[in-house]
């Protein structure tokens, strides 16, 4: 089977949408930006910094779950397996807590 990957970020329409989405997101009481701006190298650096803000509670919540439930979680993972966590936050969680 053959798959195609289409990068929608490279069109004029997507540039207009992105600009409007950023402006609208930053004008809300709860600030947000489209995740697409986080995908280049600079964006990833910004995202890492964002994950340490108190307003970005997801990273702390996930670290708390990993710290407090590691034994129970590991009961469901076959011996010799690897765990890849693709949730919110940065890889800090992976390096710090998968070896518990």
TrEMBL record:
Residue ranges annotated for the Histidine-specific methyltransferase SAM-dependent domain, each copy included: 19-93
Pfam families xrefs: Methyltransf_33 (PF10017)
Keyword line: Methyltransferase, Transferase
The keyword Lipid biosynthesis belongs to this UniProt entry's keyword annotation: no
One Gene Ontology molecular-function label: methyltransferase activity
Example of a GO biological process term: methylation
Name of protein: Histidine-specific methyltransferase SAM-dependent domain-containing protein
């Amino acid at each position: 089977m053959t798959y195609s990957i289409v990068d929608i970020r490279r069109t004029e329409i997507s540039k207009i949408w992105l600009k409007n989405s950023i402006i609208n997101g930053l004008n809300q009481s709860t600030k947000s930006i489209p995740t697409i701006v986080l995908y280049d190298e600079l964006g990833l650096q910004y995202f890492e910094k964002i994950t340490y803000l108190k307003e970005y509670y997801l990273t702390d919540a996930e670290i708390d779950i990993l710290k407090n439930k590691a034994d129970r979680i590991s009961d469901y993972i076959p011996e010799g397996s690897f765990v890849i966590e693709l949730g919110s936050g940065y890889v800090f969680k992976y390096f710090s807590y998968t070896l518990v």
